[in-house]
Each structure stands twice: as structure tokens, then as C-alpha cells.
Amino acid sequence: MKIVKVSVTFLTMLALLVSIPAVMGTGYTDVKPGSCPNPINLKSNGVVSIAVAGYNGFNGTDLSTINLDTLMVQFNANGVKNVSIERYSFEDVINDSAAPGFPCCNPITEGDGVDDLVVKVKMANLKEHIIPATTQMRVIWQVDGSDQWSGSSWDQIQVFEPPEVPKPKCSGK
Fold it and tell me: Rounded CA gap, 167 and 173, in Å?
């Protein structure tokens, strides 16, 4: 009888551990969905997209629990830094079930039928803090009704600054 109680307790704990990540937010992250190795050009003036996989019944994050007013992008540059986002949307842009092992990036561009959270952050905001040694980004948030912060997994990035190329001098004819 003791073995049955231990087995039931173990299975109950295992079921809880499997369901907690969807609520707490350990879902797969894809910086610049569809690109690999996620290049971040410091001379760019646009926006960077970061997607968090929605919950598909097994993997991902339960996006309905996120307080969307608290969304931020987090990256590691001489310590962890947070940057406000420009906007967000819900789109099916990544296939979490086909995500490779971490810390690889996800070059898969077709979705999995589940909406993902896609946040956009202005390069101008990133440039204030990001440096070429920065190697990872993720999205963080607060769960509705909570003061605690949660976040998606880290995704690898490659920050670079293209060299200045002098313009050719034209000879006057």
C-alpha cells in the first residue's frame, strides 16, 4: 500500500511540474522569427521582433495569464537590462513543437496553429544599452494579479556593427 501512495504522490507532483511552466512562462522564445542566428545590426533604425510561443497543450506559455501592460524585453549586456516594448500582437509565427535544443535558434517559419505573442522593440531603445558582447534576449512580464516577474526562455543573438565603407570618389569628366 505504501508503494501505491508514493507512486500517486510522485505522479501528482510530476503533473504539477509539467503544468506550471505554461502558467509561469518558460515558453520558447524566437528573436527575429525565422532567422538564424538572429543578427542584431547596431546601425539599423527599425524594430526587432521577439516571439514567445503560445501554449499548444504541451509546450509554450499560457498567454492569457500575462499582464500585457508589463511586457519588456530583457537582454544580457554587462548584467541584465530591460527595455520597454513598442507594441505587441498575437500571430502564429513559430512552431514550438519543432524547436531545437537550446541554445540554438529556430529557423522554422511555419506556425503550429497556436497564436504566439510577438513583441516589437525599437532599435533606438536597444542601442542605448546593447553592446556587441550581448548574446541573449527574452521577453519578461508579470502574471495578472501578481507582482512577481516571469519570462520566456533566452534565445541566442549575434550583435554586430557593420564597418564604415568609404564611398568611392568619382573622378570628374
Answer: 18
Nearest in space to 89 (alpha carbons), one of 54, 59, 124, 113: 54
Q: Whose grid coordinates read 511586457? A: 71
In 3D space, the residue among 163, 141, 117, 103 whose CA is nearest the CA of residue 24 turns out to be 141
Taking 70 as the pLDDT cut, the residues of the chain under it are 1-26, 58, 78, 96-110, 171-173
- pLDDT tens digits along 51-89: 998 887 767 788 888 999 999 999 887 678 899 999 999
| CA pair distance 56, 97, nearest whole angstrom | 8
pLDDT tens-digit map of 19-28: 333 334 467 8
Q: Which domains does the chain have, with CATH numbers?
A: 2-160 (2.60.40)
CB 149 within 8 A of CB 140: yes
Rounded CA-CA distance 104/155 in Å is 7
At 4, phi and psi to the nearest 5? Answer: -65, -45
C-alpha 12/C-alpha 3 separation (Å) is 14
Q: What are 20's three cell numbers?
A: 506550471
CA distance 154 to 49: 14
